[in-house]
Structure formats: C-alpha cells, structure tokens
Amino acid sequence: MKQIKENMIGSGQTYVGKSAPLILTAISDSCVSISLYDKNAKVGGMAHFLLAKPYTACSKEPDKYASTGLPNLLKTMYEKGASHENITANIAGGALTGVIKEFEMAFDIGGHTVETVYEILKNENIEIEKAETGGTLCYKTSLNLLSGKTTISHAYYNKKKQAETSYKETKIYIKKSLNNIKPIPQIILKIFRMINENNYDFDDITKEVKKDQVISAKVLQLCNTAFFSRSKKIDSICHA
Question: Of 39, 95, 144, 155, which one has the greatest count of Cβ atoms within 10 A?
Fold first, then answer.
C-alpha cells in the first residue's frame, strides 16, 4: 500500500496532478483556496489566492490573484486532459479573522476574491460542489488526488503547541463557544461594501438579500414586527 503524502499549497501557489497518493492542503483566512477535480480524467488541482486581482498590470506573480491564477490553473488542467463539463470545484476562505477592524469590513478583500472565483467558474460552466466562505474562522481545504474527494473544515491552532491548562472545563467551554459562533454571511459583507462605496440602490440591495434564505426570513420577520406598525403583512423582500 502506497503511503499518502501531503503537499501544503501556500498563498500564491498552485498544483495540478493526475491520480497519485497525494493530498493537497491549503489553509485560508481572508485569502481563498479552490480545489478542482475531473473524475473522468482523474486530474486534480488546487490554488491559493491572496487577492482578487493585481493592482498593477505588470505583476510578476499571477498565481497570487484569482483573476489571473484561476485561468492559469484551468489551462493547465485542460492540457492534462480535464474538461470543464466534468470538473467540480470546492471553494473556501474569504473570512474575517482575528480582531476585525472597520476598514476590513469596508474593503471586504476576501469577498472580492470569492466573487472573482465565482465569476470565472460561471463563465467556464464549472459546477461548484461546495463553498465555505466568509465567517470569522480559518478554513482547511484538502484534496485527495487518489479518490478525488475534497474536504473543507475549520482550521484550529495545534493545541499541543499551546500552553497546557488544568482547567478542562474551560477547554470544553471554549470548544463549545467556537462551534456556536455564527459566521458573517458573504452577502452581508457585500452589502456593507456597496453602502460604503455609495454604489447601490434599493433594487441592488434587494437582489443581494434574496440570495440568502435565512437573511430574507429575518428581514421579513423584522418588517412584520409591531415596531414598524404595518397594517398589511409584508410577504416579499421587494416590499420589505
């Protein structure tokens, strides 16, 4: 039985390979990682994007950016026999981690990168199998090149490297608290960005809110509370 090795894909790096005893892994916070796999050609790849696009036209590191790195990744996969109709994609990252500052909410760097990835995949007609984006925790994405399976999970710091504590109850409490943290939806971050850039109207905001069923339900619930004193029930986001 072949031993399966792990290859860490750092920010600005990509990897493409055929069926092999290898697991590709990326850890993403505000940056965005993507895994691609063609089950027929048994070709897989992973990329780890720092930003949505380069700020200068003469960037010498195209793989750092989703706008240039993802087309390069797809081109390499096509050259190895993959086809867009058989590729599935998994996306993770674009989170706000650590102490969140106002400018991070305003610029929403991760949100821009996620949107760029979505746009390119849509243009290539590539199916998105799973996406874990936004939130306040890091993500770990792993692609097994033998099975073609991708897993996305929250990446925590290695507890063995942290100071030991005798208060087991505290550890249990922290773990439960982390599991109960509710992520910041990517749509909310996009709406914040639209408002900060003064680049919106109510139709634009309505369009974004309707993309998320939970947010839509909360908006309708709020609009039908006694606080707004509406005599007629609001039953659509357009009217809300």
Answer: 95
Show the domain range for 16: 5-156
Decide if 7 contacts 25 (C-beta within 8 A): yes
Give the C-alpha separation, 73 to 62, whole Å. 11
Lowest mean pLDDT among 92-96, 97-101, 130-134: 97-101
**Letter string b/e over residues 62-94, b meaning 16 or more CB atoms within 10 A of that residue's CB:** ebbbbbbbbeebbebbbebebebeebbbbbbbb
- Residue 29 included in any domain: yes
Q: Are the beta carbons of 150 and 29 closer than 8 angstroms?
A: no
pLDDT score, position 107 = 59
pLDDT attached to residue 109: 77
Number of folded domains in the chain?
1
66-79 vs 109-123: helix crossing angle, rounded to 10? 40
Which of 131, 129, 148, 139 is closest to 45 using CA atoms?
148
Q: What are phi and psi of 135, to 5 degrees?
A: 85, -165
